[in-house]
Amino acid sequence: MKYIDIQNEVIQQYGIDICDGSKCPNDWHRTHAHLKLRRVCKWKQANSIASTFTLLHEVGHIVTNTTSMHRYEQEYYATQWAIDRCAAYGIAVPQKTVDQYQRYIDMELARGLRRGLKRYYRFQLKNTSATT
Which of 73, 74, 92, 96 gives a 20 to 30 Å CA spacing to 115? Predict the structure, then answer.
């Protein structure tokens, strides 16, 4: 199965609206998800692991988010969901990508702590898609 086929399957399966950014109330410069609208904006479809992982990460925000989550938790669950979906499709996510997302999650946790977060859990991503 080609990456584009996987992307299209995920878009259809989860009822995702893809937008070029023209429907956004704010002019965001990066790929992002609108949770309630089930929309992913500014994502560029390409037949690549990177494009597929980015889409899965944003869909992960839509399907895993609850209103009580802190930002670092949202990032962890969306990323882990994307890694697990890649594994289900037989796509190996480069460890470099997982490490990059882990640093972002850690940065969001540090930001929360600076802002007064008292109770937290340090999440560690598991690359379930890695080949041995």
Answer: 96
